[in-house]
């Protein structure tokens, strides 16, 4: 069953009431793109993206894995962060943007997509098994979430998200919000 415009709109509207990080996400989606593009960010601005990626699961992401990834990210020198962000902003292809970001310690492809979402929120969305699985359950993707996703998997996912957003006449962010809530509800059995 394909995702309908009504379903996406309804879920996107419910998201702020059900996702405790919604207000902070909106703030960062508004502030971070310019802050990152201008190079006027600090360590905590960038670290927030990594923390958000894991903590948006509200405890459902294995704590030991989250802490390990966050600690590995903390091992990066600030100059490496600057180089990765600059490289992602200057790169012309999605694959090249992800390559620049995943050169950082603690940044796998999924975390890299979180960076893309906050670098260019009108063009990119974060990708994890939750969103992918919802798309698959609704006939938008055929394969299960890859064990080790690559840039081509992300591009396939992003194409489907863009198609859903176009079909539902909504922003990518609304598509993400709907996928996120559907995934959370499915995992909870509601």
Report a brief summary of the structure.
This protein is mainly alpha-helical. Helices cover 69% and strands 0% of the residues.
Question: Can you give a write-up of this model?
Answer:
With 190 residues, the protein is mainly α. It has one domain (5-188). The chain is built from ten helices and no strands. It has helices at 5-18, 22-38, 43-55, 63-74, 78-90, 94-101, 109-119, 129-137, 151-168, 172-188. Helix 3 (43-55) crosses helix 7 (109-119). It is globular. It starts with a helix and ends with a helix. 33% of the residues are buried. The mean pLDDT is 92.
* Strand and helix order: HHHHHHHHHH
**Whole-Å distance between the termini?**
18 Å
Number of helices: 10
Question: Considering DSSP H and I runs of 4 or more, what fraction of the residues is helical?
Answer: 55-70%
Write down the domain tally: 1
Secondary-structure content class: mainly alpha
- Give me the Rg, rounded: 16 Å
Which characteristics define this entry?
single chain; 190 residues; mainly alpha; 10 helices; globular
């Amino acid at each position: 069953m394909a995702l309908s415009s009504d379903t996406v709109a309804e879920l996107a509207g419910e998201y702020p009431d059900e996702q405790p990080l919604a207000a902070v996400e909106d703030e960062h989606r508004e502030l971070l793109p310019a802050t990152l593009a201008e190079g006027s960010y600090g360590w905590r601005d960038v670290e927030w993206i990594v923390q958000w990626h894991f903590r948006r699961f509200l405890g459902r992401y294995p704590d030991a894995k989250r802490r390990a990834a966050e600690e590995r990210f903390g091992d990066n020198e600030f100059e490496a962060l600057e180089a990765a962000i600059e490289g992602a902003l200057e790169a012309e292809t999605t694959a090249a943007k992800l390559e620049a970001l995943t050169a950082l310690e603690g940044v796998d492809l999924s975390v890299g997509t979180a960076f893309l979402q906050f670098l260019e929120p009108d063009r990119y969305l974060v990708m994890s098994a939750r969103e992918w699985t919802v798309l698959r359950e609704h006939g938008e993707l055929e394969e299960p979430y890859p064990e080790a996703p690559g840039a081509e998997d992300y591009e396939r996912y992003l194409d489907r998200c863009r198609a859903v957003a176009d079909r539902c006449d909504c922003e990518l962010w609304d598509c993400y919000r709907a996928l996120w809530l559907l995934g959370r509800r499915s995992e909870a059995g509601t």
